[in-house]
Amino acid sequence: MPRIVREADATWEGTLARGNGTLTATSSGTFVDLPITLASRLEVQQGKTSPEELLAAAHANCFITSLAGELARAGTPPGRLAVRCTITMDEVEGGNHRIVASAIDATAWASGADEELVVRIGRVADEGCPFSALIRASADVSVAVRLGEE
Amino acid sequence: MADRTANVTWQGSLLEGGGRIDSVGSGAFGPLEVTWASRTEEHGGMTSPEELIAAAHAACYAMAFSNVLAKAGTPPERLSTSATVTFVPGEGITRVAVRVRGRVPGLDAATFKERAEEGHAACPVSNALKAVPEITLDAELES
User: Fold this and answer.
1) What pTM was estimated for this model as a whole?
2) Whole domain around residue A64: which residue ranges?
């Protein structure tokens, strides 16, 4: 299979508490020089993104593509899917921070699918999502999938 | 404790349909279009899970390394980090390469490299990605 490579760049000036940085999606150029600070990462976001928010976007994106593929494979291709991912970072012993949980909450509208099927396919999609596999080694991953109402 | 959230929708099949990162909690970016082709072939100006992981890691590592340096009494003037994520469909994320260049007054090149390794241990995203088969670090002090 082909190897796909994606790159991003960050800068930082000064100490962690008082300094600040920038973040760029270098491969696609989708976002450039977004501001980052420690306070917006740990406290109120103030319109700034953070590593954890980017992981939430990555996991939601990864899971939703896996779910789209698995529903089609099951003979019930999706009309529409909606996924919310919430990443939780907590302070652990010694004052360090760890990413402790990633929670996926998904709704699937797929003709011919029932609730039992989408729940089952949701588990298969989780198993097939590379990001779920990685982060499960160090954090709790929870996946809730429901059938969307017409 | 900090929770950070993103919302993504998808319309249609994996190969012919497409998705959108509708919103993130901070509002810092979005909506951003995403497709399977842009993830696994040419990016076509669209982001992907792997690029977002690279962005998370580059940002997290820069913050963690700055803290290691400041705690050691040598805060950086400036750090430039990049993260490159390699994805093999059907296999998974196989490699993350982190590169850092820094201007740090009062620090020699060898100590910079040592501290850079400590930066990984202090970075929550490095810890979250520890199951990646290969994580590399290339650290050089700028004169």
Assistant:
1) 0.96
2) 51-147
> Which residues, in sequence order, are bridge partners of residue A102?
A87, A141
Cα B3 to Cα A108: distance, rounded to the nearest angstrom: 24
pLDDT digits (tens, 9 = 90+) for B98-110: 999 999 999 999 9
Query: Which among B48, B60, B89 has CB closest to A6?
Result: B48
Closest-CA residue in chain A for B80?
A11
In a shared domain, residues A35 and A55:
no
CB A57 within 8 A of CB B24: yes
- Residue A34 CA to residue A107 CA, distance in Å, equals 30
In terms of domains, do A68 and A132 share one?
A: yes
| CATH class of the domain at B49-141 | alpha beta
The pLDDT tens digits of the residues spanning A123-136 come to: 999 999 999 999 99
Q: How far is A40 from chain B (nearest CA, A)?
A: 9
A74 interfaces chain B, CB cutoff of 8 Å: no
Cβ–Cβ below 8 Å for B51 and A1? no
Q: Identify whether A14 is part of a domain.
A: yes
Report the gap between the CA of A120 and the closest CA in chain B (Å).
18
